[in-house]
Amino acid sequence: MINFVQQEIENDLKAGKYTSGIRTRFPPEPNGYLHIGHAKSVCLNFGLANFNGGLCNLRFDDTNPTKEDVEYVDSIQEDIRWLGFDWADRKFFASDYFGRLYEYAVELIRRGLAYVDDLSAEEIKAYRGTLTEPGKESPCRNRSVEENLDLFAKMKAGEFADGEKVLRAKIDMASPNMNMRDPVIYRITRATHHRTGDDWLIYPMYDFAHPLSDAIENITHSVCTLEFEDHRPFYDWLLDALDFDVNSRPRQIEFARLDLTNTITSKRKLRQLVEEKHVRGWDDPRMPTLSGLRRRGFTPAAIRDFCERIGVAKSNSLVDVAMLESCVREDLNNNADRIMAVLDPLKVVLTNVDENSVEYLPAENHPTRGGSRYVPFTREIFIEREDFMEDAPKKFFRLKPGGEVRLKHAYIIKCDEVIKDAAGKVTELHCTIDKTSKSGGETANRKVKGTIHWVSAKFALKAEVRLYDYLLTTDEKGNLPEDFIGALNPNSLIVIDNALVEPSVRWTAAGTHYQFLRLGYFVVDPDTTPEHLVFNRVVGLKDTWAKISK
Ligand code: ATP
Ligand code: MG
Question: What are the residues facing 426 on neighbouring strands?
Fold first, then answer.
């Protein structure tokens, strides 16, 4: 783990800070499902802790009761575990600290560093000034400590309406950093919280709750995305104001968020896709959520590998989604068994094979991992329609009238006759096999230019195969358009319901990966049953990324 955050940690350790060990945290807000961008943060935070022999906490930043839900709390834990990380007994909630956070706010008031303000939200905004003009002080700014303590207690007790009063830190209305112009730290919200119910009528703001939650948990390095850089002065101000020791208290370090071509990484937009039913749910295989990627057949190892390869930088950049696809392709190339499936079947009758003959031919499962199975070979088989061409150009090395091709794991066949329907569509081919051309036979090594996949008509299983494309159409650079609903790709899901797969996979379980020879990598969808197999295409075989990067 060589990145600039690790470098900072090493500098701190050399300077004699954090003598009781490194502690990081992953702090999701439970208002949506985790996506690939979060995976970067999960891998970084847990990775830094592991690398330094420290610990990483899971902390739900649940300070906004109106948007949060237990459904999200549960899915987030499932996704982090699936990615391969473990917080052991260190699952925390910012809401666990509501009592202590309140006490800290009271302490700020006592120290003359916070005040209750009567200005409305609009007034506060108007008083804030701009980047070029200083803000204006609220008439309530110089209330006495006693009055502030009394009003804050009354805010907590429910004596004011929502929005009627707020608690603000008293810092500097002329600060060039807008976040330091007396930020609001507590607001009144009558909303039922998913954990504390109706216990609280006032809730801490994220900028107040986050540094203090970090400090309460003895976090040493609070790693977050770049947009929080301007919030760091307040993070430090708050810990200073409350006398947290500089040598042991948490420090915030910002890194570049992950943005991917063709990919939405805004929770708000992802929620909109789900709520407006543009996708089947949070786990739709087209979604960049971890549950979507899982269902799509991406593996935890591939995602971790991706997060390692993209590295951690200090400036934002756009990563090509082809790189993520390349990582899963590499993992599945190493680990997925090969089988034969036909997506667009064309019937072939092998006229010199007996009607009732069934021959079981051995087929290797994987070129390096080995293993094998038998595939049944019969008089009638199906091949891929596009593997036959009637008026084939010279370079077409698959099947054509009078031509020969090898059936994978089986015989060389020759196309003798093409059968068509009234409309001229090819409905069937009549072919003959070279009986000595199978493995071990006299002409086993006879060379023909092409090898194609096939399945036995009698034994093949029907399958539904779902092919996916990007959810959105983008410009050439992969940038997302502003109106993303308008850019939804109408062909992002194509369902093939009459595909055929070899019988060896009848009892396969959801989540099992295969390479369908010559077609790509596929995973068994949770919708599957032995009577109705359902596969999702993970990625095709061609690696565009590997080519670009060479
Ligand atoms: P919100 O707008 O709801 O805050 P968020 O994407 O920041 O959305 P959080 O639940 O706050 O969601 O994120 C948890 C952690 O994941 C944060 O530390 C955040 O910085 C990090 N994170 C979120 N999106 C990305 C991303 N695209 N790349 C890297 N880290 C991210
Ligand atoms: Mg956030």
Answer: 420
pLDDT digits (tens, 9 = 90+) for 170-212: 999 999 999 999 999 999 999 999 999 999 999 999 999 999 9
Q: How far is the CA of 39 from the centre of ligand 2 (A)?
A: 14
DSSP letter for 527, please.
Answer: T
Sign of torsion over alpha carbons 538, 542, 546, 548: negative
Please give the DSSP secondary-structure letter assigned to residue 232.
H
Ligand 1 touching residue 258 (CB < 6 A) = yes
How do 341-342 and 493-501 pair as beta strands? antiparallel
Cα 475 to middle of ligand 2, angstroms:
27
The full set of domains in the chain, from first to last, is: 4-255 (3.40.50.620), 267-337+463-549 (2.40.240.10), 343-453 (2.40.240.10)
Instruction: Give residues with Cβ within 8 angstroms of 165, minimum separation 6.
Output: 116, 117, 118, 151, 155, 188
Measure the CA–CA gap between 377 and 458, rounded to whole angstroms.
Answer: 9
Contact 363, 454 (CB under 8 A): no
Mean pLDDT, range 335-360, rounded to an integer = 98
Rg (CA), the chain: 31
Nearest to 259 by CA among 17, 449, 35: 35
Which atom of ligand 1 is found nearest the CA of 34?
Answer: 10
Q: Are 26 and 44 in contact (CB under 8 A)?
A: no
In a 10 Å sphere around its CB, with 0-12 CB exposed, 13-18 middle and 19+ buried, how is residue 40 labelled? buried
Q: How far is CA 388 from the centre of its chain?
A: 39
Q: What is the 3-state secondary structure (H, E, C) of 318-331?
A: EECHHHHHHHHHHH
Atom of ligand 1 lying closest to residue 41 CA? 30
Residue 173: partners with Cβ closer than 8 Å, 6 or more residues away: 127, 129, 134, 135, 136, 137, 181, 182
Tokens read off for 406? 């090898």
Number of Cβ within a 10 Å radius of residue 107: 14
CB atoms within 10 A of CB 117: 23
Neighbours of 546 (CB within 10 A): 13
Q: Which of 63, 105, 141 lies closest to 242 in space, CA to CA?
A: 105
Tokens 């086993």, located at residue = 444
What is the spatial distance between Cα 221 and Cα 5, in angstroms, rounded to a whole number?
9
Assess whether the C-beta atom of 40 lies below 6 angstroms from ligand 1: yes
pLDDT (average), residues 136-158:
98
List Cβ neighbours of 84 (8 Å cut-off, separation of 6 or more): 300, 301, 304
Can you give the pLDDT at residue 70? 92
The CA-atom distances, in angstroms, between 468 and each of 302, 431, 472, 521 are: 19, 34, 11, 12
Ligand 1, atom 27, residue with closest C-alpha? 37
User: Tens digits of per-residue pLDDT, 511-531?
Assistant: 999 999 999 999 999 999 999
